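COURSE: Structural Biology Practicum
ASSIGNMENT: Worksheet 4, Part C
STUDENT ID: 0417
INSTRUCTIONS: Below are two proteins. For each, the amino acid sequence is given first, followed by its structure token string. Answer the questions at the end about the second protein only.

PROTEIN I
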Amino acid sequence: MDLLNGPWVSQLTRLPWGLVSIVCAIAGFGMVVLYSAAGGSLDPWALKQGIRFAVLLGAALALALVPPERWLALAWPIYGVLLLALLGVELVGAVKGGSQRWLDLGIIQFQPSEMMKLGIVLILARYYHYVPKGYETRPEVLLPALGLIALPVGLVMLQPDLGTALSILFGGAVVLFLAGVRLWLFGAAAAGVAALLPVAWNFLHDYQKRRVLIFLDPESDPRGAGYHITQSKIAIGSGGLTGKGFLNGTQSHLDYLPELHTDFVFATMAEEWGLMGGMLVIALYGMVLAWGIRTAVKARSQFQRLLALGLTATLFFYLAINMMMVMGLAPVVGIPLPLISWGGSAMLTVMVLLGLVMGIARANRGPKW
């Protein structure tokens, strides 16, 4: 009986189990979509995805039991290790699909840039936790913060991985905004970026240029570079209101839709489940995002607020870019749909993200440890 009344049981009861249920529902639906994408088979995606999710859910719950103050103390070491890992990718990283993004650790291949999406939010939340109010925009405070963002963004662009670099940049910019950096500086930065676009264009790889051009006019090369997005829009549009039915998708099952289990899994789902299925998925994601915002509002410290909101914004970036991408509203940049797309690194990042925010939610529901 003492075991059932121990302090660890009390901490478990303070976890947001409603949120856990929603996350399990999204992941479960994702496995159903992967089962269909494989033609009605658990192999090669659905079963492995389910096992991976179960393991990472346990890891996320364990992370949620760690006091947020521990992450405050570990922010610099974590950022430093991830930065060294990104340097390691440049020196000895494994190459896949023409990009050098992975470190081969023997038992797994680790993609440091994925975890840096969280690392940048963590380090900037810690940095601005100690900045006095009113000092956020001063050059001696702002320039080091910009340096913290520029280092990983530059290293990730060398891989090259534009989508992940933009995600890291977005997470960093959100924390700067939430910390109190003046809005006019973001406007000036946007104007500067717009002015440098012709110069930046020359530094893009040929395939990145093709993605931008195809985004602007996908019909210009429907059988070549525009094939992905053209087939994706056909799949989504053909699903109609209620979809073609489970296991009845034609674009996916007849191999017209490329990357049907990764980047374009939302199109695979929309073809069979229609607008109603898509709205259900969006509603579930919306509940997760709303929970993240409520967690930040209830947080007791600047660090916790910035961390919770920054991580929630990072999750929103994943969702928005992937869904806009498959609908032709954004260039194809290789960002997966959280908890649904096949892939270990992306799911690891999302589950760690949720674990950190759940830890903040747990810590603010009652007395501290």
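PROTEIN II
(use this one for the questions)
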Amino acid sequence: MMRILLMAACSCGLTGVIGYFLLPVLRALKAGQSIREIGPTWHNNKAGTPMMGGLMFIFAAVLLLLANLVVMEDYSVFYVLILSLCFGFIGFLDDFTKIKHKRNLGLTSIQKAALQAAVSALFLYAMFRSGSMSTELYIPFVDLSFTLHPIVYIFFSMFVMVGCVNAVNLTDGVDGLCGSVTIPVMVFFAAASVALGKYDLALLPATLVGGLIAYLFYNWHPAKVFMGDTGSLFLGGVVCAMAFALEMPLILILVGIVYIMETLSVILQVAYFKMTHGKRLFKMSPIHHHFEMCGWKEEKIVLSFTAVTAAMCILAWIGISGLFA
């Protein structure tokens, strides 16, 4: 337990140091964010803010996990890390394309979906081959599990992973939002890993708790840097991979409630717009922009969404408490 807490503390310090040196490099490379024309007009002053800041907590997580390699007994955490790095690399390609062509749109939706599906399939195959994952689906609160056919489970898992990763990505639209919301989620996964005796698996979410706290020093409004798709897709990978590594993917409905709200707001907005021939259900989507249009300051949105996530993580903990009996 002490090692896990130490990892979080070290990650906070290391991420802060990496960010100190990374920020001027990103500025020198002119890796600035382009703002979408359909977004809130007051976001235009954020144009040019360095992106790919997610590299600071990604580098810290990789370095600290490698430093713990000699004392580890369970290496399943590296499956989670590799999956997340693959998603992060897809995000990096997306960010690089935006920077190179000086536009807000990077890879196409089809390109990203295909790459994400391939990465998810490889992760599931590796986890099954290593014996680190079963096809049992655990249901929180009722403390029941039932076995799915492997093919059904794989397609279900791929759908959840791709959806989860992109949902986390949608949350990165307000200064400090994605990082703040993900902190209680990482606390939950670290605590659940410890409670289930998977101490080595707890190292990655614990590292990201510290890393994200340090990252928010740079990303809190007004943001000095954005995590970019590099960071948000990496975090999405960790969120979904941890749920599957702990064999409780349905818990994402609770701990990922804000991610789900963001995604549903976009889906509902598009569907309502088409059905009503131009009317809008929300003032703007994703839903954090709706609250902005209602007059909420970015800090209020971040604190409110984070509080909702923390409350749902507590509820999720109650839901899986049967596993600890």
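ANSWER KEY EXCERPT:
Q1: The first strand starts at residue 136 and ends at 139.
Q2: The first helix runs from residue 2 to 28.
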